[in-house]
Every structure is written in structure tokens, then in C-alpha cells.
């Protein structure tokens, strides 16, 4: 579809940090890809023929962070001639493509969640999206409704259902100031990766502590006056004290 104005909007949620949300590609190597990479959303526009459009052959805009948190995130792409608005969760990046983007030659085909033909150019990670979409609209057309009604202009590849399964979450509550969980570390391991969500009315409290074997040190993650702080230390001295949040 070669239209003067394109408006694409959708909402997504996922626990995967990488995956292709949207892809369009033209005959001359022109393509537009929206891809989740390490929890951030990138919009890559490539004009393909660098000889014809050498000054602006590629545009790569990145918005958002930690978008793989299994919460709904909204995306809006508005393209009018060479003006593009890229919006993620109400944060908008406006850019002007110096005139050449108005010549972008794209196929009639637009794919969500992956690339129809493996190995096409223009992708960063080449991983298909694994998660949930809702409210996919292309120039006012409800794409999910067309797919659900099995309209001829839509085709489905792979396993897909018209529902969004919620992951099973098992919380834990500490009922007193002396309650905690302890996990024995692996001998010789000197790397730690931890992720969790928490909620509390208390402004103070120890969230996590760990000792690192080889460095004879460790770290403390704690709440202080409602802010999250981390203290890294070696025996006898504090290396750093970092605070974030409010």
C-alpha cells in the first residue's frame, strides 16, 4: 500500500527482551522494522539504495526501557511524507527524513510479530515476537478483527490464539521484621543476576544481600527514605553507594 499518510498503532506485553513487532519491506531493499532489543523498542528505517539517497540511508530511533515487564505498552507510528512521529507510552520522537523518506518504496505486505520470509534484511535480532498484542490498527483498520474473522487479506503463520494467557505469579509476604528467604550460592560463583518486584508501605528495609566469594565482598540492596539504594563493598571499605527511584 503506497499511501501519503500511514498510521500504525498497537499495544503489546511480553516477558521476552527481544523480538520483531512490525516489518515492511520494498522491492529495492527499502524496509521499516520495529523491534524489541534488550527491553528497548527500536524503529529502523532503511532506504536501501544508498546511491540514490546517500545522505539519509538509515534511521534508527530507540525509545523506552524495561518493556519486557509483562505490562501493556502502547506504540504509535505516524508517517506523513517525510515526517515521522514514533511514540512509545506517550513519549514521542519527532524526526524529519530530509526529503528522501517520501520516496520509500514498500511492499503491499505488512507483518506483525515476525518476518514472513526468513533472512530478509533490516532486522536487528531476527527473533519473532513472543507475547501478546491488542488493538492493532493500520490506518483505522482493526487487524486483529480481520484475523479473527479469517478474512482473505490476512494470513496467520505459526501458533496463535485470540487470548492472552497470564503467567502464574506466586507472591511471598514477609509477616515480621525477622522474616526472610535465603538461597545458598554456588561455590566459586562470582556473578549474581537477580530480578524481582516488590511493594511495601515501609520507607526503610533490607531487600537483598549477597556475598561474592572471590572478591571477599558483596552488596546490599535496601530501601532508605523510600529510595532504593545499593552498596557495593569489599572487606573493610565501601566501593560505591548508588541510589535510584523515589
Automatic annotation (TrEMBL):
UniProt-listed InterPro entries: ConA-like_dom_sf, Laminin_G, Neurexin-related_CASP
The residues covered by the Laminin G domain are 1-164
What's a Pfam family in this record? Answer: Laminin_G_2
Q: Which SMART domains match?
A: LamG (SM00282)
PROSITE patterns cross-referenced by the UniProt entry: LAM_G_DOMAIN
* Highest taxon above the source species: Eukaryota
Query: Which named protein is this?
Result: CNTP4 protein
Q: What is the lineage of its organism?
A: Eukaryota, Metazoa, Chordata, Craniata, Vertebrata
Instruction: Name the gene behind this protein.
Output: Cntnap4_1
Amino acid at each position: 500500500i503506497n499511501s501519503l499518510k500511514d498510521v500504525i498503532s498497537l499495544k503489546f506485553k511480553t516477558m521476552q527482551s527481544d523480538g520483531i513487532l512490525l516489518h515492511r519491506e520494498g522491492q529495492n531493499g527499502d524496509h521499516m522494522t520495529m523491534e524489541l532489543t534488550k527491553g528497548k523498542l527500536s524503529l529502523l528505517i532503511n532506504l536501501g539504495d544508498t546511491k540514490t539517497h546517500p545522505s539519509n540511508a538509515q534511521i534508527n530511533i530507540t525509545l523506552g526501557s524495561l518493556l519486557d515487564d509483562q505490562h501493556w505498552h502502547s506504540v504509535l507510528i505516524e508517517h506523513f511524507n517525510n515526517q515521522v512521529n514514533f511514540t512509545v507510552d506517550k513519549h514521542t520522537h519527532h524526526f524529519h527524513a530530509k526529503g528522501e523518506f517520501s520516496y520509500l518504496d514498500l511492499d503491499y505486505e505488512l507483518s506483525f510479530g515476525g518476518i514472513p520470509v526468513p533472512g530478509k534484511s533490516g532486522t536487528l535480532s531476527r527473533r519473532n515476537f513472543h507475547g501478546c498484542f491488542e488493538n492493532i490498527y493500520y490506518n483505522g483498520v482493526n487487524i486483529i478483527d480481520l484475523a479473527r474473522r479469517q478474512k482473505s487479506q490476512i494470513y496467520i503463520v505459526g501458533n496463535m490464539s485470540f487470548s492472552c494467557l497470564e503467567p502464574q505469579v506466586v507472591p511471598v509476604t514477609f509477616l515480621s521484621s525477622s522474616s526472610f528467604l535465603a538461597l545458598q550460592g554456588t561455590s566459586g560463583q562470582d556473578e549474581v543476576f537477580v530480578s524481582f518486584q516488590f511493594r511495601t508501605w515501609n520507607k526503610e528495609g533490607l531487600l537483598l544481600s549477597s556475598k561474592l566469594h572471590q572478591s571477599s565482598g558483596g552488596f546490599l540492596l535496601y530501601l532508605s527514605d523510600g529510595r532504593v539504594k545499593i552498596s557495593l563493598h569489599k572487606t573493610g571499605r565501601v566501593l560505591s553507594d548508588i541510589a535510584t527511584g523515589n
